[in-house]
Write a structure and sequence with these properties.
- The chain has four helices and eight strands; from the N terminus they run H-H-E-E-E-E-E-E-E-H-H-E.
- By secondary structure, it is α+β, with helices and mostly antiparallel strands.
- It folds into two domains: about 50 residues; about 150 residues, no CATH class.
- A hairpin with a 2-residue loop joins strand 5 and strand 6.
- It is rod-shaped, with a radius of gyration of 38 Å.
């Protein structure tokens, strides 16, 4: 009996405390604070899950120039009429001129393949290639101009001369390290892309030719 009376007294005290308006406000604030904490935790977890990257940005770049070369190319266009293997006098037309040419090299980034093996990111690169070769028409300079009225240089000959000019400029640029620099710059850029997703202190990146 005494135990029951004590329980009833405790319950009555608890009811009186709960009925107190000030205590009710405190309890509501505590409940809201706890609920807000759980909501905040839930939002954080959702954000982390959604922010996981399934693709790395370079996969959608397409062709991307990673190195440019600027060349000043001199060309000689020489045309003469011949008869039995000998040049006919007064039929020689000759031009010596130059153009500035911008050559860009890089990769088709859609062809880059990569996978993770343990703590190594293995990246397979396609061949570097010339992406563009542009002649700056405003840079045209003439060093020698001689044209015979009996043998004028045709548009077709001039077009072939410009193609030869571009081809020689590309060869010269490659010999001077255009492809090598394009490869180095591509590796640097790709490391930056991977570094935005993976901790490069934990992963080693290895580049392999396809």
């Amino acid at each position: 009996m005494e135990k029951n009376n004590k329980k009833e007294k405790k319950n009555n005290k608890l009811l009186k405390i709960l009925k107190n308006p000030l205590m009710q406000k405190i309890i509501i604030l505590i409940i809201v604070a706890i609920a807000s904490g759980f909501i905040a935790i839930g939002i954080k977890d959702t954000f982390i899950t959604d922010s996981k990257t399934t693709k790395i940005g370079f996969e959608n770049i397409g062709e991307f120039a990673t190195q440019s070369a600027y060349c000043t190319q001199i060309n000689v266009t020489d045309s003469s009429r011949e008869l039995f293997g000998n040049k006919i006098p007064f039929t020689q037309s000759k031009y010596i001129y130059s153009y500035n040419i911008t050559i860009k090299a890089g990769y088709d980034f859609s062809q880059i393949q990569w996978n993770i093996k343990g703590d190594t990111i293995e990246v397979k690169l396609p061949e570097v290639k010339i992406l563009s070769s542009e002649i700056d028409l405003d840079s045209f300079k003439v060093y020698h101009e001689e044209e015979s009225i009996f043998n004028k240089i045709t548009l077709s000959e001039n077009n072939q001369a410009l193609k030869k000019l571009q081809s020689e400029a590309q060869t010269q640029a490659i010999q001077n390290g255009l492809y090598d620099n394009a490869r180095k710059n591509a590796e640097t850029m790709l490391k930056s892309f991977f570094g935005n997703v993976y901790d490069l202190n934990k992963y080693k990146i290895v580049f392999i030719d396809k």
